[in-house]
Structure prediction request, 620 residues.
Amino acid sequence: MTVLVDSAPVQASRRRSARHRRWLAAVLMGALAAAFAAAMSLGDFPVPLSGIVRSLLSPLTGLTDRGVDFIVLQVRLPRAILAILSGAAFGLAGITFQTLLRNPLASPDIIGISRGASAAAVFCIIILGWSGLAVSIGAFAGAILTASAIYLLAWRQGATPYRVVLIGIGMDAVLIAIISYIFTRARINEVQQAMAWLVGSLNAARFNDIAVLALAMLVLLLALAPLLRNLDPLELGDDTARSLGAPVEPTRLGLMLVAVGFAAFATAAVGPVGFVAFVAGPLARNLLKGAGRGFLHAALVGALVMLVSDLVAQHLLPMTQLPVGVVTGACGALFLLWLLMASGRSGRVN
Amino acid sequence: MTVSHQLLAAGLDLGYGDRQIVSALDLAIPPGKLTVIVGANACGKSTVLRGLARLLSPTRGAVYLDGKPIHQMPTREVATVLGVLPQSPIAPDAITVSDLVGRGRYPHQGWFRRWTPEDDAAVAQALRATDTLELADRPVDELSGGQRQRVWIAMALAQETDLLLLDEPTTFLDINHQVEVLDLLTDLVRNNGRTIVVVLHDLNLACRYADHIVAMKAGKLVAEGRPSAVITEEVVADVFGMTSRIVVDPVSETPMIVPIGRHHVERAPA
Prediction:
């Protein structure tokens, strides 16, 4: 039944949304480029913009300057790339969970998945005496195990969002207890090492870690793309999604796997840097004003938050470098309070 | 609408877990008509609708869409023929009206098929039919209850299905908005030949708007047919456990139920 109707208003509305999405993505990319330039330039040894460009192009042009190249290419570049990649991964993990569970509080750092990685890492460091890459692998396994446990415990003819959130929060409390218990049995230097891991930092940025994270993210993005289409109906509630013919449980399980993957790989690379996953989605959505789902924008916001937080962590206090997790934690806590107060007024957090 | 699709339930048992709600239901939905399901709270009327909509699997019996068991058909294929508006659909935060209505196009879009002019036309048509075209850019959470309900119906209309099932679409609406929604559903049946099944609370509105009324009690079908033929004082007493008088609706000449209650005595008709 194609009755001729003037569809111009609908087209116009759709185009306005698309324009706003593109414009916002461009602004965020611009901001990210500026933050990247600042990250490459600032430090005990400031490098001017021209020096950065020359250094970055030196493998192609052959114009080298050993001292500057070392600082730019070996110290600052891996750190900035790791910040961008892990920030984007946290942002995607956060917005996927928040959209899927229809709750802005339901990011992996709130519903226990990051805590699972932390508990596993603390176990590896203190009980097993591991360090380095082995701890990252342990943390990755911890995140996956915790997510599976939450999903299985929440399953009752389907894992409804509400049950996943509640069980996740309960799981988080149990894991905190486990971490505390392990700490009581540890020697002080082990506790120090474990605490450093728990805060999360970009100090140990190596190109190897970056390559693993980048490859994992590529695979996860390829898995995410087709699932996003099914998220459209899923956002309207399970019954509506089923009546629109969407595969509800397979989509939900697939998206959870992808989101856990993003969170786990990012956590393994930089530690459970708090609140990046939590703030990226709501910030992106606020900026979008209803013009889309904002996955790309959440990834950009996550990268930007991570990179800027790391800049602040490095340069806020003279002579002292803070771990990036301290900055994101402090800002994220304020954001959480603001979100709770704002949603208390409008009643949106369900 | 060119083809009329057939929806019927045969020997249908429905329930949640061990709790059986509906038993041995036989029901044929008349094509091109507005069917209204009524009954007291917890009589299983919403459960029947969910069963017919393949949202709930039967424990026994089956629902047939054009002669095929609906639970065995590809769900996407069903979605191009049968649309459902559940009782409490969720609008994502800050979503705009046109985005929400556009999501009704999901079953018509494939993996590689992008948004087309037909999709725009279907959305525009659905917005026009529900008189919400001027709201296209507005966020859904800023609308009034009546507007929001019309937008949700538009979402189901954008799906362009011949069959449309709605679970209590007038609950929480003021009386004027209730009438507005039921008028709209009647337009859809009369003008487009759609087949619509609605669960309603208000018995008088049900009698006025239904071409075919289905009265249920404790998971069983008590009566079905034209309201003026089936809705009697005995049926109301049976279904709602309430004594009443039935008079003729002065506007539509359909049955109108006047409850009696404990504090009033029935006076002889004047």
Summary: Chain A has one domain: 2-346. Residues 66-100 of chain A form the longest helix (35 residues).
